UniProtKB/TrEMBL annotation, chains A, B:
Entry keyword Oxidoreductase: yes
Lineage, broadest ranks: Bacteria, Pseudomonadati, Pseudomonadota, Betaproteobacteria, Burkholderiales
Keyword RNA-binding: no
Molecular-function GO term, any one: flavin adenine dinucleotide binding
Cofactors required: FAD
Keywords: FAD, Flavoprotein, Oxidoreductase
Residues in Acyl-CoA dehydrogenase/oxidase C-terminal domain copies: 283-448
Biological role stated in the UniProt entry: Involved in the assimilation of dimethylsulphoniopropionate (DMSP), an important compound in the fixation of carbon in marine phytoplankton, by mediating the conversion of 3-(methylthio)propanoyl-CoA (MMPA-CoA) to 3-(methylthio)acryloyl-CoA (MTA-CoA).
Protein name: 3-methylmercaptopropionyl-CoA dehydrogenase
Species: Massilia litorea
Gene3D superfamilies: Acyl-CoA dehydrogenase/oxidase, N-terminal domain, Butyryl-CoA Dehydrogenase, subunit A, domain 2, Butyryl-CoA Dehydrogenase, subunit A, domain 3
Amino acid sequence: MSYQAPIKDMLFVLNELANLQQVSQLPGCEDATVDTVEAVLEENAKFCGEVVAPLNHPSDKEPSFWHDGQVTTSAGFKVAFQAFGESGWQGVQHPQEFGGQGLPKLVATPCTEMLNAASISFALVALLTDGAIEALLTAGSDEQKALYLEPLITGKWTGTMNLTEPQAGSDLAAVRTRAVPQGDGTYKIFGTKIFITYGEHDMAENIIHLVLARTPDAPPGVKGISLFIVPKFLINEDGTPGARNDAHCVSIEHKLGIKASPTAVLQFGDNGGAIGTLVGEENRGLEYMFIMMNAARFGVGMQGIGLAERAYQQAVAFAKDRIQSRDLAGSSGPVAIINHPDVRRMLMSMRAQTEAARALAYVGAGISDIAHYHADEATRKANLAVYEYLVPVIKGWSTEMSENVARDGVQVHGGMGFIEETGAAQHYRDAKILTIYEGTTAIQANDLVGRKTVRDGGAVAKSIIAQVRATEAALAEVQGADFAAIRAQLALGSAALEEVVDFVVANVKSDIKGVFAGSVLYLKLAGIVLGGWQMARAALVAQQKLDAGQGDASFLRAKIATARFFADHILSGAGGLRSAIVDGSAGVLALDIEQF
Amino acid sequence: MSYQAPIKDMLFVLNELANLQQVSQLPGCEDATVDTVEAVLEENAKFCGEVVAPLNHPSDKEPSFWHDGQVTTSAGFKVAFQAFGESGWQGVQHPQEFGGQGLPKLVATPCTEMLNAASISFALVALLTDGAIEALLTAGSDEQKALYLEPLITGKWTGTMNLTEPQAGSDLAAVRTRAVPQGDGTYKIFGTKIFITYGEHDMAENIIHLVLARTPDAPPGVKGISLFIVPKFLINEDGTPGARNDAHCVSIEHKLGIKASPTAVLQFGDNGGAIGTLVGEENRGLEYMFIMMNAARFGVGMQGIGLAERAYQQAVAFAKDRIQSRDLAGSSGPVAIINHPDVRRMLMSMRAQTEAARALAYVGAGISDIAHYHADEATRKANLAVYEYLVPVIKGWSTEMSENVARDGVQVHGGMGFIEETGAAQHYRDAKILTIYEGTTAIQANDLVGRKTVRDGGAVAKSIIAQVRATEAALAEVQGADFAAIRAQLALGSAALEEVVDFVVANVKSDIKGVFAGSVLYLKLAGIVLGGWQMARAALVAQQKLDAGQGDASFLRAKIATARFFADHILSGAGGLRSAIVDGSAGVLALDIEQF
């Protein structure tokens, strides 16, 4: 159950597909040279593999526990998080002026993947802290930035996102938590928040809660929500943690997975009011929270990819080790089960989906960097639109695929996979949260349909499809059955995606429920077509390098074979998804509620 | 989390699709009149819903535990199993001469579904006992039958299957357990068996282990395996349990799911030898064990269907109850989430797959009854061949679909689904064993390809496809978009299945690994096409009844809509599976082992 970061594949994707070269020439990204990035990745891989990965299974068996308002995290978490902060890993993508490394998102992304492959439960504290940092960087006052950013970026403190309330679930319009102005610039916060990841723990000296609440005169619904900083310990003049604030953890949840990560119920203001300060302007809280959420959504996509890689590695190791039954083609005795074709099929499926999702996410990260750092505003804007189209796909598809991969990981282990000691089952349990939190797949799909497709009449989607078509043309120039198969399936996939985009745009007004009945299927279709596109691009690069006698031939040939597998086994599902979206809404919506 | 048996759908399937009328006219099945069957189902539904279903979630939280060789099962299990036996539910399909009810498999099948929907962990003791009964009925001596059958059939004792050993997994050729003849007709058994479901428990006064072992002169491999009865307590002259046998439970497993069902490691013969008697002839153990396994495989398919139904009911109840966010088409406030199209899509997918798998399994049970009871040998033989083709599909596909359904069940619950108290997560955990035990899906698929397709050159498969085509012709006679859509997808599906059968038969000799690389996909394709066929048949019947003004119009319309959903959303995947099977083996097999 060890974890070896797939540095070779990561560097291949960064350099050959995600334009690291171009990103490193952007203003502010000059430190991200190919050599530096390789060194950062290797150092991070060492930390994640040696310090964090060994904690993953033991911390599942001995999860965080609550006693009398305090949460004790699993053995090793506190020390590992201290090392994480001190080594600068919380700060990879954050500004140097606040103690970060100031590297582009494209470099932080493989680091995020590695940390999550090592332990999703552990990585969550960093993910939430990243979100708090992003929100403060965007909307915090200079004073707030000076007070909070450096301790968060250096891992001395951690951050949380407080959205959900018992009666509200994902529906933020229903938020009831109150914020009462005290006349001195502070507010008193009263309310209950649930599902607060790392809402209480013992790994850092302070916890900075970012809390959605309503001021007394706020309009109803999502337009009346403001964002507040509510630290667990109020901050002294000298920046050190002082008096305990009135924000308390009353319980943590008993969950299916990510058990080491404490999921808190937080009670604000039961003893007079929790003191908070407003972030930005009143009633703009949702907007700021979306900054955290968008960063976190991409991050959850990376959790899916990290988990999938870990499950894949574990399944491969088991399949090479486990001797059972003879080879179908004949053998003198039983062989390692990796020789059995269906085991091989599952491993290839795990591998192909993980590589495709990784490539798509890293490409997205590179586009995000261009959208942030490029000198030209029009270029920034165009790239931002593409990135924003990709975020729900990266979150939704990478996490949905991680469930399938974790499932296959158990299946490869057979009966041993069902025994908790083996560790494969933990991935299956952990994966299930990824399609739910930071917005379920359906919420990602609503975003993809509404804000990302309908709003611009499908323009960005079509611009991406045009790029897929260019890759198809390039595939036609290469000889061989692999490339013919990849091209054929990619062409079917892009045609299906284009038809679906047209269907969505054309029908959303006349038949909104019919269109949204297929929203998740559209997200999945976009995932496999865009993931398949990246695999096709990867195969083209691999063939060029092989032709030129460059690089590791075994790695490059495996990349082509994996792209071929993805085309025949994953992309081949595009037609069925197209049918279900375009023809399938009648069946979805036919029953009256009483008929269920 | 209550469970209401879907009696209406069960009776519809029994009467309209699975030929209960015809089965009840078979010699020996005369008791199974429509009225009797309805009464049996209602009584069973009451027992399962009121006595067993309430135990499911508590027993997951407080599972069976081992102490000093004894296993204490979860609260309520012992009393419920006593009631189960006394009410005659263990004996539904077993001979009246040994205390059973002597009803056909077609009637026992919905009872099995209900018990498993109520609690898979509980139902397993009955499933394993059924297997032991089947093996003894087929291969036991008269003395053994007289000694063991009545207590097993009346639920006083329970049975186990002892196949797996630590070093062997699913590979029975590697079985090492030894059986040493004592010259008095008994054998002493020495060895270790693992993964023994209900290998030790406190719910019955004796446990009858059926154990695979090798006699001293046995040939190597699967041809040298014999089957032995090894009771936990030796049987006194008067048939009561006597001295403790040397078969002891040394531990039970800590599992992902079905936690209330104890999975034992059994040690035979550590204190001088466990006394056993041979079943049937030496070296024919595997053959007898296959009798148990085939019955058990069908039973595990029913576990998948029962679990899917339970998960569906729970998701529907939550979706009707949970109020969140406005309706897409506009509403004055938040609405129940069942109104949101993607929730509706997931519920329909859960429902459609469950109904299709139920219909296919019940139809299979009816065919099995004809194969057993029909007066004409040729008819028996023909039906047996069809049943044997269906068994791996019913086991493999019903359980694979149950994983998807349980997954969607959690997803419908959103964040609440990830909290163990909600109960949805238990189904997700429990489901994962079903595709593994009694032969993984890959093992079912090997059976489907090898013994069930290649051996007869695809003849049985083609005969079934011909029946599907007859249904397609009938669909063409009915007006309306629903029937056009169902027919279109069924035609694509049956064409894909036929092409795959031809591919398998044509290529298995020249490219055995290439064919087996697609074996699981072939099984899934057969599942969706044959499940879709049953849904199409159901829709035809429903329309006839609606036209004739018979029956419950709401139920019948829902059946047509559900069949339409199945066609557009599930059957539409047939083309992708076809591609992956026929074109996809290159990608599966391209990598060298070192490249993983």
